[in-house]
Specification:
CATH class of the largest domain: Alpha Beta
Shape: globular
Strand content: 15-25%
CATH topology of the largest domain: Rossmann fold
InterPro entries: Caspase-like_dom_sf, Caspase-related_regulators, Pept_C14_caspase, Pept_C14_p20, Pept_C14A
Largest sheet: 6 strands, mixed
Protein name: Caspase domain-containing protein
Family: Belongs to the peptidase C14A family.
Number of helices: 19
CATH architecture of the largest domain: 3-Layer(aba) Sandwich
Oligomer: single chain
Distance between the termini: 24 Å
GO molecular function: cysteine-type endopeptidase activity
Number of strands: 18
Helix content: 25-40%
Number of domains: 3
Strand order of the largest sheet: 2-1-3-7-9-10
Structural class: alpha/beta
Length: 486
């Protein structure tokens, strides 16, 4: 199974007093979102002073020791003085080389800190040679607004937005040309980082009309991929992981049943489920069972009552089936909740039967299937507060305020000490304050809502109400325009 622990520090500096940049913060924001989608835990720092850079890098160093891959990205002004490269904070005066040197962060110090950590792979991406109106001060001197080549310790790759002696374009759109080029390719699956950077270089060369060529120095000892298709990392056929190409499979009894389940016709779907017995299931191979499981869940979500019944009574209906066959069937069911027809993580999970499926966590015989989905979802850890698949209780501390005898307003919902109740994207606090509205939920409906929003099985949720006594007659007022989703 392809499991990785990935951490990144992304820094974008644009608000320089004497030499502001247009796109550096945009670049950092967009790279941050891209890395999150690829499974990185990302800390984004914008318009940082030297002290703030120091603090961020110190925290980043600590995170490297508990991860396998560390990535540092910087967009902003960078300089070299006497062959030493510096990241320039926004509070640098640019008055002279001495002030730049002593009020900037040496890149060599960053590389040294990263190389001494226990993680296996370090990646440093520098979009720092921006066009600089102050560069005339350093012509003929020891300083330069281009960066000097750097030594990459073992297990490290350093990527520069330009070749030595060139300057990077801050771009005319939202992004600088280098970051724009990198964003076009970084999420391409099954390409090594070297291939990603080669494609980036070709795109950059075209966008800059040949004026800018990215460059890297690498001492990586193994292959690193930003994204790998599940077809490359799971043991099932690509035709059942990305099941949009199901029709290419060889026709047989299993494929005929699956075709009926995919018909969106309840009569055909119910009839297909009725045909499933232990004898028939035991004749199917691993791929057929995995795809069958996916389509049983799909039919259940679509309302086919025999499919819903099959899931609700899964333990009973499969008790005489070979254990390995049951595992592959259930693997397909849990996979369908989270992955689409292209084998990619869903933007919106299929959760209408989520709690019925995950109630099976309580049975030891199904442990392997929930380990399977847990390990698969590790690659998408940024989508979850708690990755589904472990049979562990999750405690939520809910701060409430009584407003009526039978009504109480939810003010905060805390998980691991963090308030996760927040405004939906695009909603300003003032918009809610001007017209505060609430949804009145019973205790059971509140648990259902939290279970589906957090993708945590209902039976594993423990709610601890602060400033209130739980009552079956109490209605909890959940603020509208708010969410607890990751």
């Amino acid at each position: 199974m392809f499991n990785r622990k990935l951490t990144a520090l992304v820094l974008g500096n644009a608000a320089y007093t004497k030499s502001p940049l247009t796109n550096a913060v945009n670049d950092a924001e967009d790279i941050s979102e891209s890395l999150k989608s690829l499974g990185f835990t990302v800390v984004l720092v914008k318009d940082a002073t030297l002290e703030e850079i120091d603090q961020a890098i110190s925290a980043f160093k600590d995170s490297l020791n508990s991860n396998e891959v560390g990535l540092f990205y910087f967009a902003g002004h960078g300089m070299q003085i006497n062959g030493e490269n510096y990241i320039i904070p926004i509070d640098n005066s640019f008055d002279d080389e001495a002030s730049i040197k002593h009020r900037s962060f040496p890149l060599s110090e960053l590389i040294e800190k990263m190389s001494k950590c226990s993680n296996q792979t370090n990646i440093v991406v520098l979009d720092a040679c921006r066009d600089n109106p102050l560069s005339y001060k350093y012509r003929g001197g020891t300083g330069s607004t281009t960066l000097a080549p750097m030594y990459a310790p073992k297990g490290t790759l350093i990527s520069f937005s330009t070749s030595p002696g060139e300057k990077a374009s801050d771009g005319r759109g939202r992004n600088g040309l280098f970051t724009e080029s990198l964003l076009k390719h970084v999420s391409t699956p099954d390409l090594s980082i070297e291939e990603i950077l080669k494609r980036t270089r070709n795109t950059l060369y075209a966008l800059s009309n040949g004026k800018q060529t990215s460059w890297e120095h690498t001492s990586l000892t193994g292959n690193f991929y930003f994204k790998m298709n599940l077809t490359s990392t799971l043991t099932y056929s690509k035709f059942v992981i990305a099941d949009k190409n199901f029709h290419l499979l060889t026709p047989n009894t299993a494929s005929a049943l699956i075709k009926e389940l995919r018909s969106y016709n309840w009569y055909k779907q119910n009839d297909a489920i009725d045909k499933l017995d232990k004898g028939l299931i035991n004749t199917f191979d691993d791929n057929a069972l995995f795809l069958l499981g996916r389509n049983i869940y799909q039919a259940a979500v679509g309302g086919a009552h025999t499919a819903i019944e099959f899931i609700n009574e899964f333990s009973e209906k499969t008790k005489l089936v070979d254990k390995e066959k049951v595992k592959n069937l259930l693997n397909g069911i849990v996979f369908e909740i989270f992955f689409n027809r292209d084998g990619e993580i869903r933007e919106h999970f299929k959760l209408s039967q989520f709690n019925n499926v995950f109630s099976l966590l309580e049975y030891d015989q199904f442990e392997e299937s929930f380990t399977f989905i847990y390990e698969t979802l590790l690659n998408y850890a940024n989508h979850f507060y708690v990755i589904p698949g472990r049979n562990n209780k999750v405690n939520l501390d809910i701060k409430v305020k009584n407003v009526e005898d039978d009504e109480t307003v939810i003010e905060a919902i805390c998980l691991d000490g963090e308030n996760i109740l927040k405004l939906e994207d695009g909603i300003e606090q003032k918009e809610f304050n001007d017209n505060p509205r609430y949804s009145a939920l019973s205790l059971d409906r509140l648990k259902n809502r939290l279970s589906e929003s957090l993708v945590i099985p209902k039976h594993l949720l423990e709610l601890n109400f602060i400033n209130d006594t739980v009552s079956d007659t109490t209605y909890y007022l959940f603020p509208r325009l708010h969410t607890v989703q990751k």
